[in-house]
């Protein structure tokens, strides 16, 4: 095999870490493109020992970024969830955390020109979900200013804030904010059990379940505390996926290869301790939520999952609306309690027979970790 190099960068975006490549530097043929990218990550291998992947769902992520030809965007961005132990890349979902790194990368790589120091913005078109994202952050000397005082749970230390405004977030997978037309659906599982869920397509297609229906408290911070509900959550996820036609007939579906739909469970606020043993009082957040990604409990809360959650919290009749604190139903920002702490996100939603989402806003931090050439 002839060895060659490919330009790439590794960035932390929010509580995720990913490899970023430019579209011009990878093959245009999808099969050859994925062969190169899987080699870059070191997949399939549980440790990704022969590549640059991080061997966990939150650190085996890909961003393909290139200058956009669209009038409403500066760059196009395609996200890929790279399977660790399977030769597969899922391009259907987006990752909001990695989205926080796209603007800074675009500036540092010279894809976007900036004038002077201070706050700048980069308009990003996400090809996965047909959504527009505006990233606002500080630049100095023509480059992203990574140092700052902003802190987010799940990331040690502090960094420069990256403000993200997500628009056109509804229906990226199914074409509808509420794919079934209902705010609640009753699912009949193969074992005869019935569960009430909300299916919402905002940010990423997400299924919301009441924690109490699963026998959970909403305070769980480790997978070992969710053993009794694990198989039920996957059954629910796959049932919704098949109902919505996401999988081919007879297709073998596994959480390690099929990222959608995402699934989360919610509960009213209860005091709990984070993974760092920090006490979070019930008054310091508005809704408890835990989300699964690629068959694992997310160590914090996925940004695109937060988009779906905060929109659902604004819609009467959803599972989330029945569990969120009253202030969270009406105020702009909602405080989400997750395993590592509290995350804030806001949504502007116009309710009605066909609800509309104007914008979802949140803050992350980002940091470039390396840029150079990788051997593949």
From TrEMBL:
PANTHER family: ACONITATE ISOMERASE-RELATED, DUF453 DOMAIN PROTEIN (AFU_ORTHOLOGUE AFUA_6G00360). Belongs to the PrpF family. InterPro entries: PrpF-like. It comes from Alicyclobacillus sacchari. Pfam families: PrpF. GO terms for molecular function: isomerase activity. It comes from the Bacteria. Keywords: Isomerase. The keyword RNA-binding does not apply. This is 3-methylitaconate isomerase. Gene3D superfamilies: Diaminopimelate Epimerase, Chain A, domain 1.
